Amino acid sequence: MNAELYFRESMHMALIVHKYGGTSMGSVERIQNVARRVAKWQKAGHQIVVVPSAMSGETNRLLGLANQLHPNPDPRELDQIASTGEQVSSGLLALALQAAGTPAVSYAGWQVVIRTDSAHTKARIESIEKDKVLSDLASGKVVVITGFQGVDERGDITTLGRGGSDTSAVAIAAALGAEECLIYTDVDGVYTTDPRVCDEARRLERITFEEMLEMASLGSKVLQIRSVEFAGKYRVKTRVLSSLTDPMIPLQQEMTSGTLITFEEDEKMEAAIISGIAFARDEAKVTVLGVPDKPGIAYQILGPIAEANIDVDMIIQNQSVDGKTDFTFTVPRSEYQKAIEILKTQVQAHMGAKEIAGDPKVSKVSVVGVGMRSHVGIASKMFRTLSEEGINIQMISTSEIKISVLIDEKYMELAVRALHKAFELEQK
Length: 428
Ligand code: ADP
Ligand code: ASP
Ligand code: MG
Fold this sequence. Notes:
6-stranded antiparallel beta sheet, 2 domains, 8-stranded mixed beta sheet, 18 strands, binds magnesium ion, binds aspartic acid, VC0802-like, binds adenosine-5'-diphosphate, Carbamate kinase
């Protein structure tokens, strides 16, 4: 049997997970289109689990209400509130499927059960029970499961962090041993950079798992990083594709569209040195100035920050002058005030530091590519390009397959476009 035929045969009666994002679920008409698309897959003989996000704007609206009522809301209550968006869209999708003659049932995370730890607003999935889902599928139903949420061992509802429905979908696909996880979204795949920032961005037919992991961790929100981690750990075949095409396009065409995340560096693949540019807009920088330079500085400064559950990203410690040094690191902008407060109350006096300073208006821009391993000069090309645009680099960090710089947020988009051009990413 040739490979192509084998693939088609094995796709017969496959269990497939579909995930639809907020825009894809954004109106009654769009939900009906999702139902049509799902019904098409089911009629082709597949068992389908669908993981929808909240309707677009809904999670922001819900969190906005919470913030109007409390300056520092309890994360448990935030999860109680934010998780409702997905419950609504799941129920609506089940109804749309039923109205179209497709048997369907929806479940919230706690009904499945999707067990998580208790880290409210950024919980991690620990296990997923599959019996109920598998028996519904066997009885011919489409099973709709809320994205973004789970339940901890106390029975409290948790959420998985912004963009977390991607992670729900890939984790469910892993738990059920699904053939494939299809992430339907409002762009038709993973691009060399966010197509909303750079017109010249080009869709990638494939991207290696490693590159996708870097892109996601460096800020490309097309996939939540944890979903990519799950895909890697459990080897879930994951594809990003458009939900905005005609829902009735032929299955064969849909199955090969978008961007596939691959696990091997295929030799036939375009041997690009750089595959993409990622950015994180909402970063912040904090500096502890004039600390006595002695062992334990990093620990004394970052310990209390870690205890407060604040993620630290880039770090530099300056050369010391007269026994004093400056220590700078970045945090998500949403944690800036909290970080400054901790440094002022718990660190400054204790360490004899002169001053705590910061800048909440910085962004991080990164170039990513596995090809960097075997090429030199990528960093200097990046730095030259930025200098030609008059953009000052505040911090730098590198790994084998990426280089990141921290810059003033007002130059972020300019930097992305200039780098996209310099590395000729618009060309195949
Ligand atoms: P969904 O609601 O479907 O989860 P998201 O808004 O979370 O959709 O993610 C899709 C968006 O990600 C796109 O609309 C696009 O603006 C953005 N994006 C950022 N980087 C990329 C990239 N490299 N390729 C494609 N989309 C990207
Ligand atoms: N609705 C959630 C959010 O807006 C989860 C998701 O869309 O993936 O972050
Ligand atoms: Mg998303």
